[in-house]
UniProtKB/TrEMBL annotation:
It is found in: Cell membrane. This is Holin-like protein. Its main location: membrane. InterPro entries: LrgA/CidA. It comes from the Bacteria. GO terms for cellular component: plasma membrane. Keywords: Cell membrane, Membrane, Transmembrane, Transmembrane helix. The chain crosses the membrane at residues 25-44, 56-76, 82-105. It is a multi-pass membrane protein. Pfam families: LrgA (PF03788). It comes from Neptunomonas qingdaonensis.
Length: 118
C-alpha cells in the first residue's frame, strides 16, 4: 500500500517539476495525472498497490471539497463583486467543454468506423 501511495506522490511531484521547468500554464497535479495515465497505458496494467490507494482516496473524495467550500466563504466579498463575470465564465467554459466533448466523440466514432470496428 505504501508503494502505491509513493507512486501517486511521485507522479504528482514529477508533474509539479515539469510545470516548474517548462512554465506550462497547467496545474502540476493535472500533469501528474497525465503522467500516471501514460504509465498505466505503457505498462498495460494497474498495480494492486496503486489500485488500493486510489480506491481509498476516491472513497473519501467528498472531504477534498471542504477546502474549496471554505475558500468560497473566505472570499465571499470578492465573489459578490464579480459574480456576473464568474457566472459568464462558468457558462461559457461549460459550453466550450460540451462542444469539445461532442467533437471528440464524433472523431473517435469516425476513427472506429474507419478501422472496421463495430
Amino acid at each position: 500500500m505504501l508503494n502505491g501511495f509513493l507512486a501517486l506522490l511521485l507522479c504528482q511531484l514529477l508533474g509539479e517539476l515539469l510545470v516548474l521547468v517548462t512554465g506550462m500554464p497547467v496545474p502540476g497535479p493535472v500533469v501528474g495525472m497525465v503522467l500516471l495515465l501514460l504509465a498505466l497505458i505503457v505498462f498495460k496494467r494497474t498495480p494492486d498497490s496503486v489500485r488500493l490507494v486510489s480506491e481509498g482516496l476516491l472513497r473519501h473524495l467528498a472531504l477534498l471539497y471542504v477546502p474549496a467550500g471554505v475558500g468560497l466563504m473566505v472570499h465571499l466579498e470578492m465573489i459578490s463583486q464579480y459574480w456576473l463575470a464568474i457566472l459568464v465564465a462558468l457558462f461559457v467554459s461549460t459550453l466550450i467543454t460540451m462542444l469539445v466533448t461532442v467533437l471528440v466523440f464524433r472523431l473517435v466514432g469516425k476513427l472506429n468506423n474507419s478501422a472496421g470496428e463495430p
